[in-house]
Task: structure prediction
Amino acid sequence: MKRRGRYVVAFDSLPVIISAASSVGKAEGEGPLSQCFDCVNSNDGIGSSTWERAEASLVKQAVAASVKKAAVKMPDIDVAFAGDLLNQCTASTFGLRDTDIPLAGLFGACSTFALALFMCAAAVDTGAVRLALAEASSHFCSAEKQFRFPLEYGGQRTPTAQRTVTGAGAALVAPEGEGVYITHGMIGRITDYGVKDIANMGAAMAPAAARTIADFLKDTHSQPGDYDMILTGDLGSVGSDLLLEIMQEEYGVDINNVHADCGKMIFDSQVQDAHAGGSGCGCSASVVCSHIIPQMKENKLKRVLFAGTGALMSPLSALQGDSIPAVTHAVLLVAKGGGS
Amino acid sequence: MKRRGRYVVAFDSLPVIISAASSVGKAEGEGPLSQCFDCVNSNDGIGSSTWERAEASLVKQAVAASVKKAAVKMPDIDVAFAGDLLNQCTASTFGLRDTDIPLAGLFGACSTFALALFMCAAAVDTGAVRLALAEASSHFCSAEKQFRFPLEYGGQRTPTAQRTVTGAGAALVAPEGEGVYITHGMIGRITDYGVKDIANMGAAMAPAAARTIADFLKDTHSQPGDYDMILTGDLGSVGSDLLLEIMQEEYGVDINNVHADCGKMIFDSQVQDAHAGGSGCGCSASVVCSHIIPQMKENKLKRVLFAGTGALMSPLSALQGDSIPAVTHAVLLVAKGGGS
Result:
């Protein structure tokens, strides 16, 4: 691992994502990416007695699928980096409890999957870890209950609000093998433009995404055209428009032609009542694992800068009148033959 | 970084804790370690309008003190690993928001400070990070409110209950300098013996502590007598007794002579109404930073195996009838001249 510029590190040993898998809920399975996911649950309860246990079940499904794809066994995994949005990250804990994998818990809100991929690449790059697991999850019902209103209340959402994805994504990173390389990464800084509207997370996260993307381009002396895709986690339609504007106005960089956003991909907002798009740790985790990485394996995408976006508020901090701090962590995913 | 046995890694470059500092509340300042802490607040409100903001203020105080001690500047810090017990880890976020340090958020409940030290050592050991910050915090009032009862309720606690420490600890880790080495570390596995009593965290965490300590001794081919201290995070008096029993009965190892526990040190339980002792992320963070590391710098302690213990439940998982999964992460702290 070597530093490139101020914030970016290069993983010189080229860690490889040898498998990636996801499990999602009913709405996600009816969306535009329905054919991509490894496991689509027909019922968001997933055979569980509570929404929180249902989210833990998603974690189990995604991890089991990633392990099966890689043809490895649970005890082969040296360390898991995982997190979620629930208070005290219980979806990860209960989802991974029975695996006996050493667990380093992460918190990055919706940026968690990018942070987990960074940590896995760094761990494997040291040479001391042979197989690392990145995992993140969210569930519409557990999130609504915790962050917004009881489902039974039937609350109306504003046009800027996003729909939390019911989904989990899991990826296995190894020193070598067939798959997609993680060549670079960076840990983001907290960025807070003073946005206080908890029904507009996209606006709160866009400035953090812009700062990380600008830092990454600067540190690596690269241009937007050097990437097939600059993929943000879950800015949704409102946040994505703001990102393009901030990139242009504050940093003088036009990423219009290469920008995509997981939150804009996962639902058909017109039909699925998803307003500004998808959100939650499981949004980018499931889209990257089941839509982006497979395209990279087929060489349809060669260089993807994945910038995971997270809003670091709590319901309580919002009620106490605090603004919404945000963070964006990034990893550069490169297909075989995609350059260094 | 090289693997030693199944779970332990050795940090071959010998990362150094070049400074460590803490900030605590009134009760901690009246306890047996009153003379150790860098900053003792005379009022737990710490000039803040909410308990959550007060906890963020503790974070700011501890980080500022550690930076001042090391005679570095905030922008010199390449990355911070930090976490706390509040929902969505807002004490770390709001406490570090204005520092502009890249932030990798952690969740490990009360094991967070040990996990953060592990991450800092691993980061510095790669050669790509020159200065890393480990930070963790808790606050009696924000924790009571979130995990137990409103303070105004005046709830009575059971004898096995612990008192959440109002405190934050911060340590800076660098490739070289004067201080205490982090020579080895390990990430723990989730361990759950089915304990469901949320007023007895010590019992829930003791099995995880035993497993990590046993793994560490086995992987490093060492004996309890090779350490001046095997220091658990916050098992308190009940959990500590259980740890000694489990170590003896399940692993055949007697650690009686070298075991100590931060939760047993920080309060005078008889006088301070702390029942089974202190707990919370800030317990081991403040005790290690202000009591253990200074003794190691003076060579009064040479080899300390610090095993941070965490109970990974949430109030909701407990209400839903789930048991309390626990985890213990460990780092080996070695004074100059303390061997490798």
User: Anything to note?
Assistant: Chain A touches chain B through 59 residues (CB under 8 Å).
